[in-house]
Design a protein that fits this description.
alpha/beta; Protein-Tyrosine Phosphatase, Chain A; 3 domains; five-stranded mixed beta sheet; globular; quinone binding
Amino acid sequence: MLRKAITDHYSVSEQISLDDVDTLAKSGVTLIICNRPDNEEEGQLNFAKVAEQAKANHISAIHIPFSGGQMQPEDVGAFKQALKGTLNVHAYCRTGNRSTQIWQASQEPTIQPQAAASASPSPQYDVVIVGAGSAGLATAASLLKRQSNIKLCLIDPANSHYYQPGWTLVGGGVFKAAKTHRKMAHVIPRNSTWIQQSVSTFLPNENKLVLDNGQQVSYRFLVVAAGIKLNWEAIEGLSETLGKNGVTSNYRYDLAPYTWELVKNLKNGNAVFTQPPMPIKCAGAPQKAMYLSCDHWLKNGSHKNIKTSFYNAGGVIFGVPAYVPALESYLKKYQVNTQYSHNLVKVDGPNKRAYFAAKDKNGEPTIIETQFDMLHVCPPQCAPDFIRNSPLADEAGWVEVDKETLQHTRFSNIWSLGDVSNTPNAKTMAAARKQAPVVAQNIADALQNRPIKAIYDGYGSCPLTVERGKIVLAEFGYGGKLLPTFPKWINDGTKPTYFAWLLKEEILPPFYWHGMLKGYEWFVKPEVKE
């Protein structure tokens, strides 16, 4: 049981066992609340047995079940009543999200007056966009191209905006980091308002959200483009050793230059590259870093003295089979020791040791230790905390939307796109570029009370930099369907080409800054269903 404290007196977890009931009782819990319907999945421990074990431990147990996304006001009322006078409460569901959401819903009546008392009246916007990353800015720009007179607001606490696909090339010595950076104030679209705050709470039934400073912001339509959380803390010892002891990651602006420094200076030893379980943004990025590093070592003659290993928590090198042969040829070329189903769980930077959760030959869990001289880490990733704990989230914590229209499945005036949504596509900047016009068109139609028709086909792109000067340009949609932008005679995406490298190095960065973020929808006009 992984127990998460929401307050000093309220905690949540995934499904508990009878032994967990004993543990909770010993920790001082006086009430257990189950938010799962019985028989939700095969093998689930039903509530009656939990209640019986709780009674044996002289603690109470209450069943307030509801399915994901179907919490009702009476559920919240029963929950609030159960909490009255109870000192120490633990609630559970399949993942802990429903138990978090019902607690949050139970707090709304007390949060709202405090926020109203400490802030000015709620500003009213036609459209509020949470997140000014690639997806949020592109949506704002595309929407303003369609309807320039709307009152639009972007909410994001950041001072800087980054072209993150460029960090692979920074780590490979091709770009300088500064080329990927702009001040946020310089990329916010004209005719929009920027609130430089974080969101604490969503109140979708009231068409409002609450900021960290207590201010409430109301909207007609809401777009959630809050990105993804890089969970560095999930790997023991990692945070304190990043940027030193040979430990780096191209997933951070300040660390990508260190990657190149390590690559240039490594003449012999062990180079280890890792990939965590899905979902992650840009699933090809961990191996891109490896290919560019190996290419440098091969060309400067040090490759024969460096053992390169790729530890992948997944079971394949790439999820779309059409691109696998080209990638496997480079694994062979660079003599990469590839280990699947190995998940990084601990790093000892000073002693240069990495530890991976795996299974032995009998299928039993084990920990594999390896020594490194250079360690490139891709961190595990999840939805941001304020999203996972919100009423907008699905069971896994992502914003719950229709995979084609990108409209929320329960709140019809809310849309979501980019890394934070639960659409089953690859989480890439190219996906956001294709999604933004879909959301913009659908909201523009909704503003005019027209039926929404724009749909997203799951397009994502991963330019796999297999060597300096050549890229395998993977482009695919839902179900792994190949969706190439260019005809085969211009670029065969299943093979490494110089054309794709030129696209990545020379064309896409200005295309991003001066096209996508300005609302120009080159190659991504939304498909419309009749």
